[in-house]
Design a protein that fits this description.
Strands 3-2-1-4-5-6-7 form a seven-stranded parallel beta sheet, with helices on both faces. Strand 4, helix 4 and strand 5 form a beta-alpha-beta unit. By secondary structure, it is an alpha/beta fold. Helices cover 45% and strands 15% of the residues. It has a single domain, classed as Rossmann fold (3-Layer(aba) Sandwich).
């Protein structure tokens, strides 16, 4: 087991990609702190499933966009156990054409996706530096960190900014043996994109044709990448991105107007 007896905090870890990552880490012996901001029942259900894999796990509520809440969460965690790994996964998206982007939608996505990633990233980094045993920090971004999709402008901007946040952290934390990397996720069916799937009937099948590997990704696919980036296998990898997107970047030119395809 590559992560036996390690402790990881997974933000937004109770569902979707966060749950998939939590599960794959637990399969490698990692103890998990499941962060959530709503739906405590789902978080507790995930905790129960993780415990059934033979690891320790508990949930903790905190809004990552609120710095005081993040500081409280980290203080509470390190009062119970050490923390070796941070998976910054919490994220949201609003689908709006550029000319219709509202201030509320801009602030909502920026505050959770980018400010939230910074809040958790900096506070955990400060702890890891003080502890002086190294550590791993992983940000879940998207292939949209490189290429935007229509009506996802703000989301794409936040993911691109997180990529640079990770690189900046990787540069300054390298001397402390703290590795910082990102996972650029492809199309994964989760709560975050149900609206898009419902709005564009046939989208799932169309993407299955466009993605070179001919399927959408799964939370478990993202989890396997997170295991690598959280383990000693990644000791010589920092400031990098692993694209877990089935090759969709290759065909992105075809993807731009996918919702209008026959």
């Amino acid at each position: 087991m590559r992560l036996k007896d390690k402790w990881a905090l997974v933000t937004g870890g109770g569902r979707g990609i966060g749950k998939g990552i939590s599960t794959e880490l637990a399969k490698e012996g990692c103890n998990i702190v499941v962060n959530y901001v709503s739906e405590p029942g789902r978080a507790e259900e995930t905790v129960k499933e993780l415990k059934n894999l033979g690891v320790q796990a508990y949930s903790i509520k905190a809004d990552v966009s609120n710095r005081d809440d993040v500081n409280r969460m980290i203080s509470e965690i390190i009062s119970k156990n050490e923390l070796d790994i941070l998976i910054n996964n919490a994220g949201v998206v609003k689908f709006e054409p550029f000319l219709e982007i509202t201030k509320e939608a801009w602030d909502f996505q920026m505050n959770i996706n980018l400010v939230g990633a910074f809040n958790a990233g900096q506070e955990v980094a400060r702890y890891l530096v003080k502890r002086n045993k190294g550590g791993k920090i992983v940000f879940v971004t998207s292939f949209n960190q490189e290429v935007p999709n229509g009506s996802q402008g703000v989301y794409s901007i936040t993911k691109s900014a997180i990529k640079m946040l990770a690189k900046s952290m990787a540069l300054e934390l390298a001397d402390y043996k703290i590795n910082v990397n990102t996972i650029a996720a492809g199309a994964v069916i989760t709560d975050i994109n149900k609206v898009q799937i419902e709005e564009f009937p046939g989208l799932v099948d169309r993407l299955n044709k466009i993605i070179p590997l001919h399927r959408w990704g799964t939370p478990e696919d993202m989890g396997k990448a997170a295991v690598f980036l959280s383990s000693a296998d990644c000791d010589y990898v920092t400031g990098s991105t692993i694209f877990v997107e089935g090759g969709i970047m290759i065909n992105n030119g075809m993807l731009i107007n996918v919702s209008e395809e026959e």
